[in-house]
Amino acid sequence: MIQIRNLRVQAKHVLLHDVTLSLPAYQFVCLVGASGSGKTLLLKRLLNRLPDGMSSSGEVTSEVPLRRGLDIGYIPQQYTDAFLPFLTMRQMLRDTYRAHKRKVDQPHIDHVLRTLELDPVWLDRFPSELSGGQLQRFAILIAVALKPRVILADELTTALDPVLTRRLLDWLTEYQHQYGATILFVTHELGPALHYGDQLVLMQEGRIVETGTPQMMKQSRHPFTMTLMQAHRISLEERKSSCHLSYP
Q1: What pLDDT is stored for residue 246 in this prediction?
Q2: Which H/E stretch holds residue 204?
Q3: Residue 115: closest CA among 92, 139, 141
Q4: Could you point out which of 18, 118, 190, 204 has its C-alpha 20 to 30 Å from the C-alpha of 228?
Q5: Of the candidates 139, 159, 157, 153, which has an alpha carbon nearest to the alpha carbon of residue 186?
Q6: How many CB atoms lie within 10 A of CB 31?
Q7: Could you tell me the CA-to-CA distances from 219 to 32, 208, 223, 230, 237 in Å, in that order?
Q8: Would you say the pTM of this structure is higher than 0.85?
Q9: Are 26 and 176 in contact (CB under 8 A)?
Q10: pLDDT single digits (tens) 80-121
Q11: DSSP state of 70
Q12: Alpha carbons 70 and 147: distance in angstroms, whole number
């Protein structure tokens, strides 16, 4: 379990306000909020990667030591940050294993390649030779290469079509169960969070508004949660009318 207590991040102004949150082991936790609500900033603090000029107080603890790359897999929203322009995808994977003195797990890589619909031929391409959607999927592959026990995923489905999005989230759920992992999935969409999340955490303006199971959120009387649920229902109706894939 990762425990966050009274976490505050500030620059000229307070950006995260006394965030207290538990991330239980073996849970798929969805952090939901609009752009600018503090979701990405919270992830960066968990990784000790706050931008220059920001400071923090409070504490983040875990039951066992967590090492980035080996125990924590991070999938950034700006997925291009995951790559070096002069290395191919294969070289990036090789260096990921070497950095932690691990042997390349080819069966695991092959399985993730199939799941993400990545052609193995693309392993020998440089970032400039791949599309945005392909790069985003390779960022996911690199993040899970070492089978980390914690995955921090920041808007990882933004460049993916609905069918591949659902396939990826199905696979992340399988990964969570197979490896006993904790998934922290950051999203601005309530639909996937309600469908896949064991626990939802709603954020607004740097504060946690409400936490609970999907069923609790559906029954919530909190004004912010009710507004999100209403917007979700409207979105569902619009998608159904246009025959797009949607979440129940």
Answers
A1: 60
A2: strand 199-204
A3: 141
A4: 18
A5: 153
A6: 29
A7: 17, 18, 12, 12, 20
A8: yes
A9: yes
A10: 778 999 999 999 999 999 999 999 999 999 999 998 899 999
A11: T
A12: 8
Tokens of 182: 């904790």
Q: Which domains, ranges and CATH numbers included, belong to the chain? A: 2-66+149-244 (3.40.50.300)
> What whole-number percentage of the chain has pLDDT above 70?
96
Is residue 75 within 8 A of residue 140, CB to CB? The reply is: yes
3-state secondary structure of 193: helix
Position 232 scores a pLDDT of: 86
Q: Tell me: the pLDDT tens digits for 128-141?
A: 999 988 998 999 99
Is 90 exceeded by the pLDDT of residue 233? no
Token pair of 192 as six digits: 């996937």
- Asked whether 75 and 152 are in contact (CB, 8 A), the reply is yes
pLDDT in tens, 168-197: 899 899 999 988 999 999 999 899 999 999
Do 76 and 82 meet the contact criterion of CB atoms below 8 Å apart? yes
Contacts of 14 (CB under 8 A, 6+ apart): 8, 206
Decide if 32 contacts 202 (C-beta within 8 A).
Answer: yes
